[in-house]
Design brief:
This protein is an alpha+beta fold. It is 55% helix and 13% strand. It has helices spanning 2-31, 45-55, 57-71, 87-102, 120-140, 185-189, 193-210, 216-221; strands at 75-77, 106-113, 148-155, 172-180.
């Protein structure tokens, strides 16, 4: 009977401590700056996130990331157990490099992946070799190495196709928008609209020249 009472008392104490901890966490979260819940443990992360939201950095990066993925093939694939770029991979990376060079204010990351054949440790090394091959080719096409700030291998941990067998779609590298070049004039001045405006201006000039010989009636009727 005494043992049962002790056990019940202990359980109640644990529950009380847990409730207090939860209440304290909620209170601390409420009293912290917005974004504190996403803090990864590095000093200033939450404040940095707030700043990026307020000054438009995050929205800009999201938009440019989506645009990059829509306008350029972001993935290249590899033969089994190899980190050698074939003709298709080089063509894709050349297109990526052309896009990257148009936006000198952006930084990019390259991630390497493998299929599930082989040990995890080996696949991490292979994924890194593939990412390095992609980065080296981008650099050969005029991309500054300082703008390729992350070269990461996920090995077999993020497959496109869930299989333990050989699968080319899993043997890949992926290039993504990673951030802003902090010393670039557009970033320092927050003139992100110039990035979009400069393209619209070029497209407008091209369109104007194409329409130069078309009469007003033709434009209106769509002839």
């Amino acid at each position: 009977m005494k043992r049962a009472i002790k056990f019940t008392t202990l359980t109640a104490c644990v529950a009380l401590v847990s409730a207090c901890a939860s209440e304290n966490a909620t209170r601390n979260q409420f009293n912290s700056e917005a974004g504190a819940v996403i803090d990864g443990g590095f000093f200033g992360n939450a404040t940095m996130n707030n700043t990026q939201v307020q000054n438009g950095d995050i929205k800009f990066l999201q938009d440019m990331g989506a645009r990059f993925a829509n306008e350029v093939e972001t993935t290249v694939t590899f033969e089994f157990n190899k980190a050698v770029l074939d003709d298709a991979a080089r063509l894709t990376l050349k297109q990526q490099a052309n896009y990257i060079n148009q936006f000198p204010e952006l930084r990019f990351s390259v991630y390497g992946h493998t299929d599930a054949v082989g040990s995890d440790a080996y696949n991490v090394r292979l994924g890194r070799a593939r990412a390095l091959a992609a980065v080296n080719y981008l650099v050969s096409q005029g991309v500054s190495r300082t703008r390729l700030d992350a070269l990461v291998s996920f090995g077999e941990r993020q497959p496109i196709v869930a299989t333990q067998e050989k699968e080319r779609r899993n043997r890949r590298t992926v290039t993504e928008v990673a951030g802003l070049v902090s010393t670039h004039p557009l970033v320092l001045n927050g003139k992100y609209a110039d990035v979009i405006f400069r393209e619209y201006r070029e497209q407008g000039a091209t369109l104007e020249s194409e329409l130069g010989g078309i009469t007003g009636s033709e434009v209106q009727t769509g002839s």
